[in-house]
């Protein structure tokens, strides 16, 4: 009986250690998957910014920018001119103001987009050395773009060429391709992790079932052993009491 209890106790202890090991492994796998998930989220945010910038570069026509520059070149001069000639009604004057305001908003949006793109690329460059060269190329293109735009604020032709910059577009597209390739690698890693987590999860289920069986068996064995011990103790106590009782009677008869 004691030998069986010792064997079961040993197996239960071994299973408990196996359980701790498997839980630790599963926790590490989940943590790695969480880190990869965070990387995916951050990369997607970067891609969104790059796509927005590419849209701005690729789909804004020169005519749009010519119209914008025409309105934003000298706002007060345009309004004064219309008012002096008296050829515009109040409604048309308001329309002109709305168009000017919309053009200013578009320019502010472009500036904000470039600033956001610059910040993300700087962060990328410092965090990931393997794409440092590509990031620096995009940053140089953006800087050249901003300087050229400041110098050519009244030059419609130059502004059109700036926004259709082949170098800037190409640098951004290279960056997009690199991030997409990285996302594909991360996807494969997460699929592999998912398979491992599933396997480890099944292993944990088996260990927990076996542990429960050993503990249940140990409990029953322990109860049987305890009952036998109590029975032996009771028998021993009765025998001792009987001896003590008759010994006392013998002394009293003397």
Largest sheet: none
Strand content: under 5%
Q: Write down the Rg.
A: 41 Å
Number of helices: 7
- What percentage of residues falls in helices of 4 or more residues? over 70%
Membrane topology: Single-pass membrane protein
Family: Belongs to the plant Proton pump-interactor protein family.
Main location: membrane
Keywords: Cell membrane, Coiled coil, Endoplasmic reticulum, Membrane, Transmembrane, Transmembrane helix
Describe this structure in words.
This is Proton pump-interactor 1-like. One of its GO terms (cellular component) is plasma membrane. Its main location: membrane. InterPro entries: PPI1-4. This protein has one domain. The protein is 92% helix and 0% strand. Helix 3 runs antiparallel to helix 4. About 19% of the residues have low confidence.
């Amino acid at each position: 009986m004691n030998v069986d209890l010792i064997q079961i106790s040993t197996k239960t202890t071994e299973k408990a250690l196996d359980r701790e090991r498997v839980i630790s492994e599963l926790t590490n796998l989940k943590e790695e998957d969480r880190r990869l998930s965070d990387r995916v989220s951050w990369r997607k945010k970067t891609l969104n910014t790059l796509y927005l910038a590419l849209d701005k570069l690729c789909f804004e026509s020169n005519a749009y920018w010519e119209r914008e520059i025409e309105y934003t070149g000298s706002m007060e001069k345009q309004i004064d001119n219309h008012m002096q000639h008296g050829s515009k009604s109040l409604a048309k004057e308001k329309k002109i103001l709305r168009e000017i305001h919309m053009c200013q908003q578009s320019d502010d949006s472009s500036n904000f987009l470039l600033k956001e793109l610059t910040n993300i690329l700087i962060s990328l460059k410092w965090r990931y050395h393997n794409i440092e060269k590509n990031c620096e190329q995009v940053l140089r293109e953006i800087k050249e773009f901003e300087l050229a735009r400041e110098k050519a604020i009244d030059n419609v032709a130059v502004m059109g060429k700036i926004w259709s910059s082949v170098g800037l577009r190409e640098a951004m597209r290279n960056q997009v391709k690199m991030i997409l390739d990285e996302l594909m690698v991360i996807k494969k890693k997460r699929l592999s992790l998912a398979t491992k987590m599933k396997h480890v999860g099944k292993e944990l289920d088996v260990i927990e079932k076996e542990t429960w069986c050993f503990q249940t068996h140990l409990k029953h064995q322990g109860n049987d052993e305890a009952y036998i011990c109590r029975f032996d103790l009771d028998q021993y106590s009765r025998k001792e009491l009987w001896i003590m009782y008759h010994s006392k009677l013998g002394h009293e008869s003397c």
